[in-house]
Amino acid sequence: MKIKIDLAHAGNAESYAASNYKKAEEIRAYLCKDEEDYTGWVNWPSEIPTEWMTKMEKVAEDIRSKCDRLIVIGIGGSYLGTAAIIDALGGSKKGCPEVIYAGNNMSGYYHAGLKEVIDNHDVCLCVVSKSGGTMESRLAFSILKDWMYEKYGREETACRIVAITDPAKGILREETDAEGYVDFEIPGNIGGRYSAFTPGIMFPLAVAGVDIKALLKGAEDISKDETFWQEGLKYALARYALYEAGKSVEVFEYYDPSLRLIGEWCKQLFGESEGKEGKGIFPASLTFSTDLHSMGQFLQDGHQIFFETIVNVVKREKDVIVPESAGAELAGRSLNEINSMAVKGVMAAHAKADIPMIKIDVEDMKEEALGQLLYFFMMSAAVTGKLMEIDPFNQPGVEDYKQEIRNLLGQ
Ligand code: PA5
């Protein structure tokens, strides 16, 4: 596997993880049976029909030929995976449409600006909503459709829309069937934040030129690798041990800004999975070395309510050699090498402050490794959630604020 878990700096959590391994193994074995609601994602990487992969690649090719901007309309689990993977890979592949996002907020300022940005471009829409009724995506979809009707007319607009939603229910499903949009399904038993390997995320990635077969292979390989999980499950156990020891915040840390959205994806996955019934670890994320110059002070010296999870990419695909003018001790070194010294230096400083740290080494940031990493986090969130005795697959709290907004709008 391209992922390695290092608990050497995780304090007592390391021995807890070693001696409680059986518990986590039983939970994973139970999840693999896919008997509980919303556990469809567990074996999904091996179960996704080949025809779906073929259709995604075929439709992606068609969309690529029609536009230079693909607007992905979706929120939460219906867009974060797409954005995180595209950013981690350094953007759309050469010659493929740039992917931009709508419907992940309700800001009029943002969406007015978006219309200006796309004004001189050829645009297609990919609307992703499992429920089909989420307010943010509904609003953005109607605003952008209106803009498209003016630019392309109604018939051509329908040919530029790909809808990804529940196979059977919801208003987006009804509209899709009525208007004849090209569509893909998000399987009924897979929830938003566990949908990284469904068409909701993989189709827009295919349009951006991402190798979705390699991404899926990564997820499938890790999902079946029993040897890996003997070590891999220790992450979920260590998180639980640290939580029980009073560490109620997990800070995900990256040493490359292109991983920032992986942090956002993790926040959604862990926050929405675990934060319920007065329990859960609050997920935060920081990009280093940027945030060392702000939050670095808090980490080193502040209220010790947290532990750190460092996602360390071992080999980056690009690098720069530092020129002479930077001074004798830096000149001639690679910037990535200096960055990896920063990982070691910061960990040494934080070890002195007794901060528990979990390091996840990822071999590289290519599709296969990303598939493994995302699946690994999904399994870890589910296992820690089960250890906490909460349901990692529902989100009852999200409904409350939605209802309050609906009340204010008189709906
Ligand atoms: O993980 C989840 O279930 C949520 O974050 C959803 O993905 C998000 O609310 C969007 O929902 P929908 O796809 O139904 O529009």
- Radius of gyration, Cα only, in angstroms? 22 Å
Query: Overall mean pLDDT score?
Result: 97
How would you classify the helix and strand content by structural class?
alpha/beta
Q: What gap, in angstroms, lies between the N and C termini?
A: 50 Å
Please report the total strand number as a whole number.
Answer: 10
Number of helices: 17
Uncertain runs are none
Q: How many structural domains?
A: 2
Identify the CATH homologous superfamily of the largest domain.
Glucose-6-phosphate isomerase like protein, domain 1
- The percent range for strand residues is 5-15%
**CATH-scheme architecture of the largest domain:** 3-Layer(aba) Sandwich
Largest sheet: number of strands, sense, barrel closure: 5 strands, mixed
CATH class of the largest domain: Alpha Beta
Could you say which overall geometry the principal axes of the C-alpha atoms support?
A: globular
